[in-house]
Amino acid sequence: MNWIDLRYVLAAARGGTLAAAARAVSADATTVARRLAASERTLGARLFDRIDGRLVPTAAGEVALQRAEAIEQEMLALEQAIGGRDGALWGSVRMTSVNALLCGYLVPRLGDFRVRYPDIVLELVADTSHLNLSRREADLALRMSRPEGGGVVTRRLARLAYAVYAGRELTARAGADPAQLPWIRYEDRYAHLPEAQWVARRYPGAPVVLRASVGVLSLEAVRAGLGVALLPCYLADVDPDLRRLGAPVSLREVWLILHADLKRTARVRALADWLAAQFERDAALFAGGTQHPPVAAPA
């Protein structure tokens, strides 16, 4: 049995479906199914049960997964040992973060990185599930909280300020008191986040017209005039059609994380240093200091 087949077994276990495994290994579902069948024939045991459309490892599959993960770690250690000595500024770097940071902040600025490092190919993954850096699911990550555990290098890049925002037409029509305006609140699965808890404490009785995910979706709803929402200032302050309804409040942080074994890899270090410089330059944007004074609520 070869390592390539083991990668398909690991992808199937982690993704839970043929489609998810196919995305992880950049193949199609038919190829994944064929590789899994080949692995089962080679090992002489069924590795997965199909239960309610999900791939569930059997007892034999669990043993195979433990061994496969050990082999994966050895392969990654080999890659990292070699990559750490490579000083060439070329190759790919895989980075993950939430969609709001990638689309709302990073992508519009990547032209500068491309000019500086034309031979580095960036792979951006918008994901909230915290891809595992130790398994090289990503080389770097931008996260909204400081990670726990070892094996990674961390650096705080910014403190994030939030404020209540509304569209111009809504405030012109209905005033500027957030407590009296319709609200776009977060879905229940985000209730544990600091921004959701702040809204719940500050405006517990405000009318709710829409529940949405954090970030870009809530921003678009405010832009459409559906209501007001608590938004990160770096996203909302650059929109000329939005107005603050109150002073910003610091609620979150952005942390840069990379695997400790990759900190000397030239292409990874180049991206890490470039990100740190970008966030330092835009510190006022993240702190909520770039917009005109907020619209005053009635006395």
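(ticket continues) Second input and output from the same batch:
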Amino acid sequence: MTDALNKKYDALKEYIADLESAVVAYSGGVDSTFLLAVATDVLGEKAVGVIGRSPSYSKREQEDAIRLAKQMGARIHFIDTNEMANEAYNTNPPTRCFACKSILFRGVWKAADELGCKYVIEGSNADDLGDFRPGMDAAKKLRVKAPLVDLAFTKDEIRALSKEMGLPTWNKPAFACLSSRVPYGQPITLQKLGRIEKAEYALGDLGFSGLRVRDYDELCRIEVPSGEIARLIEDTTRAKVVRQLKEAGYKYVCLDLEGYRTGSMNETLSSQVKEDARAAGETGTK
């Protein structure tokens, strides 16, 4: 590590030590795992990772998160988010993420109160500030601290420190909730989430990573990193992909030749729609 990164890491430990006790909104991703690992190292039993159980949270991701927390010696606590019952979520407007994170963080705060923890912290980082992320507005509204944003940690720095700390997530591909695979305006249903999860499991079992299966009812649009497209369209692999994704529930299987990119569903939103969604977050619209 460079001296600059060492100083930033020391600043993070000081930041967390000043909290005295905290729950971490924990998903098992690169950022929240790093944050929970540091919080556990600094605060010990006064740090708790809270996992929100939801149909939009892949079962494999949840199982991996639990396993990893045990390996780190971190305390974990579970809440059920029940966002499927909320119209502001299940109708899937551009503000869906704001509604979802509002529900999640209220539940995490309730858990913090029950566990006797003073603060809630979450793993957004400085690179997230340039994207359309209404969920970050929800975090601010609900007084959730983002240490990695406050101290300007980039994703690359978090990965570098995670590797230094021996965390297996240091090179883990980014992952988002399964509802992010459904186009805005199309309802979120258990059936859709189930087939997305099954389809992404199938592709993962074939060795693909950093992938998304975007759901358009009978049709799905596969995104894999551009360097893996050639392997996917090789005859034998392509046949397996088509068969397994049809078994997951799709009638038509399509490949996005542009490859995987973060937040491709946001490409359909105009600047005005994004501004309106941000304004809704600022005024507390759920």
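Agent notes: The radius of gyration is 19 Å. The longest strand covers residues 47-53. Closing as not reproducible unless the customer responds.
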